[in-house]
Amino acid sequence: MLDFDLAEMYGVETKVLNQSVKRNIRRFPDDFMFQLANEEYSNLKSQIVTSSWGGTRKLPYAFTEQGVAMLSGLLNSDIAIEMNIVIMRAFVAVRRFVLSPPVQEAKELRKEVNELKYYIEEVLSDYNDINEDTRMQLELIYQLLAELQVQKRLAEKPRMPIGFRQLSTEDD
Predict the structure, then answer these.
(1) Burial class (CB in 10 A: 0-12, 13-18, 19+), 108
(2) Which residues, 6 or more positions from 64, have their beta carbon under 8 angstroms from its beta carbon?
(3) What is the pLDDT of residues 107-165, one digit of tens each?
(4) pTM of the model
(5) Residue 92 to residues 81, 85, 88, 106: CA-CA distances in angstroms?
(6) How far apart are CA 78 and CA 27, in angstroms?
(7) How many alpha carbons fall within 13 Å on the CB side of residue 159?
(8) Burial level of 6, CB count in 10 A (0-12/13-18/19+)?
(9) Residues 71, 80 contacting (CB under 8 angstroms)
(10) How far is CA 136 from CA 139, 142, 150, in A?
């Protein structure tokens, strides 16, 4: 997300957001935040027809999801504080789930995966059998078609007429 979008979302000015980032720059490595290049910004401006932020003298910063999470811990707006609390609770919930996954659900999933694996193996085996039978039948059909074409060519070949040739008056 871009700095001006995040500033609006968190209820602060873009200038305040960027100042907070600069004061805490060590919290924002390159995989958390980076500044757009001129070309990237030009492409972005061509996609945003009307600018709601009124333009800028500096190139905007782009934040990854980790940068957004870090930023919510720095800003002092009510929305940023609430966002930070929600993010922390989500991290705790994910950690609890990873450390103690529902055992019964995992067993059921494992069973279903094994059943699907067995079913797919059966289907593929049947498919290979059908495929081999079909290949043999197609070969027989091709042979018969080739024989029919040869017979047709022989049947269509013009024969030399038997008998006398009639001379026309011009041949005299």
Answers:
(1) exposed
(2) 31, 32, 33
(3) 888 888 888 888 888 877 776 666 777 778 888 888 888 888 888 887 777 777 777 77
(4) 0.48
(5) 17, 11, 6, 21
(6) 21
(7) 5
(8) buried
(9) yes
(10) 5, 10, 22
Residue type for position 50: T
75 three-state secondary structure? coil
**23 vs 19: CA distance, rounded Å:** 6
* Element of type H or E holding 33: strand 33-35
Tokens describing residue 139: 């070969």
Helix (H) or strand (E) holding 34: strand 33-35
